[in-house]
Each structure stands twice: as structure tokens, then as C-alpha cells.
Amino acid sequence: MMDVFFIERDPYAPLRHCYPVSKILYEGKSEYQEIMVIESPHFGRVLILDGVAQCDEKFEFIYHEFISHIPLYAHPNPENVLIIGGGDGGALREVLKHKEVKRAVLVDIDKQVIEVSKSFFPTMSVAFEDPRAIVVNEDGYKYVQDYEQEFDVIIVDSTDPVGFAHVLTTEEFFRYVFRALKEDGIYVGQTESIHYHPDIVRRVQKSLKKVFPIVDLYTAVIPGYAGYWWSFSIASKKHPVRNPSREVSVQTKLYSADMHRHAFLPESFYQKLISGEYQV
Ligand code: SAM
To answer: Using alpha carbons only, how large is the chain's radius of gyration in Å?
Structure first.
């Protein structure tokens, strides 16, 4: 029997991940992107958009726990949450573990990603059935412009910042996000790999600092992402973010109050990284 492999087409990474394929479960093209689902012996099912692995059944919990629980626990009472992107449903699942959350709006431009996730990733897409979940298929850049002082937390769980996702990393977008957040709101967005994409990390941090009084960066090790040391840019209108503001009670595999604190970079290295002093 011939071995079959899927080789990523990551536009940024200086290397290509290669997944052994035991089965191709889905292949299609939406109005926005190519969508593929493979079964891989070690990773389980893998969701692939435009040739780039987005999440896999084995390790998706790490990314989804860190992009959700750090901003939500930094906030004392997150009732209204907006997720831009996140069509796989993983971040929504983690957000709705918080009993404080009364409403979670998920805005993904591509309806087909949500449908594919519901069909092939039942553990990740389970929260779409929660009555507190509201799904909108629209460009998040446009959606957020219609709101003022509406959300407690805004999470941007988008694809790599190229094409229709690029706008989600611009200063204009961050100004709309600032306005859509309540006076003590918190924003977080995935900002790629510390070592393969330092320019993106620096660009986003610089733009956020023009808009928000509190800006910071935390990281997690994501086994399926190029460079593995993945970053999340966080910005707050009022609350400090480096510690949980409430007792941690949601069920998680990795996230905890200690992991929250340790996810943030030591101040000295953070300054070296965003100033460009740290070069590789
Ligand atoms: N965790 C993954 C990552 O970091 O690479 C992201 C996964 S999630 C599936 C990414 C989603 O962002 C996709 O479903 C894509 O359709 C959505 N997306 C990209 N740009 C968008 C935009 N401008 N507005 C709304 N959704 C967008």
C-alpha cells in the first residue's frame, strides 16, 4: 500500500509540515478558501484551509484554551463575548464553559468551515448547539464597525493574516474593536510564531499600543503550528491581564491560574522582542 502524505503550503513558514494521511475525509472549495479534512495517525482529524493546518483533534485544546481563558479570566465578569473567525468552534466551546457568559457571537466569514466542522469535528463544534451561541457569516472587519460599548471580550481566532484575514491585524480594525468593547473590555488575537513571524508580532503590538492603554503578549506551544512557540497579542481598556481576576473553575486540560501567569513573557524579553533588539 502506497504511503500518502499531506505537505502544508504555509505562506510564511521557512519549513513545511508533512502529515501522514490515513484517509482524506473531505475536500472542497468555498467562496473564500480551499477546505480539507484528513485523518492522520498521530494527530487524528486535521482541518486544513488553503493548504495550512488550522487545528487537529489531538492538540487543538491547547490553542483554544489559551486564546479563550486568558482574556476571559482577566475580565472580572465577561457576559458578552465576540469571536471573529473560529469557525471550527473550539474557542466557542471554551468560552461557553464560563457560566458568566450570557451571549457569545461567532462571526466567521465562511459558512462552509462551520458546516465541515459540525460534520467532522464533533468535540470541537459541540458548542454551536448552546442556546447562548449566535453565529453570523460576515467579514469580522465589517461586523465590528456596527457596535459601540457592546462586548466585554473580543477574540480574533483567524487564519494567517493574508488575504481576507489581513484586515484583522490593522490599526483601523483595532480602533473599531476598541469602540465595540465596553469601557473595561479586553481584546485578544493570535499573532503567529515568535521566531518565524517576529515582524507580524511587532507590527500588531505597535498598532495596538496606539489604541489601547494596556497591551501585552503571551505564548503557548502549539505542536501543529510552524515554529511551535505561538503568540497571542492581548489588549485591555482597564483591567490588568497577567493574572486571573477570578477563581479559576472551568474544566480544562492545560489552562490553570499558574499557566495563565507563566504564559506571559518576562518583561525584559517582551521589551527586547517588540523593540526589535532580540533578533535571530
Ligand atoms: N486556529 C487557527 C489558526 O490560528 O490558524 C484558526 C482557525 S479558524 C478555522 C480561522 C477562521 O477565520 C476561518 O474559518 C476563516 O474563515 C476565518 N476568517 C478569516 N478572515 C476572516 C474575516 N475577515 N472575518 C471573519 N472570519 C474570518
So the answer is: 18
The CA-based angle 116-225-155, given to 5 degrees, is: 65
Q: What is the mean pLDDT of residues 10-38?
A: 92
Residues 106-157 pLDDT 10s: 999 999 999 999 999 999 999 999 999 999 999 999 999 999 999 999 999 9
Distance CA 223, CA 165 (A): 23
Give the pTM: 0.97
pLDDT at 4: 81
Could you tell me which of 17, 68, 77, 1 has the C-alpha nearest to residue 9? 17
Q: Which residues line ligand 1 (CB under 6 A)?
A: 32, 54-55, 63, 84-88, 107-110, 113, 139-141, 157-159, 164-165, 167-168, 190
Q: Give residue-wise pLDDT tens across range 234-262.
A: 999 999 999 999 999 999 999 999 999 99
- Quickly tell me which residue has 480551499 as its cell: 34
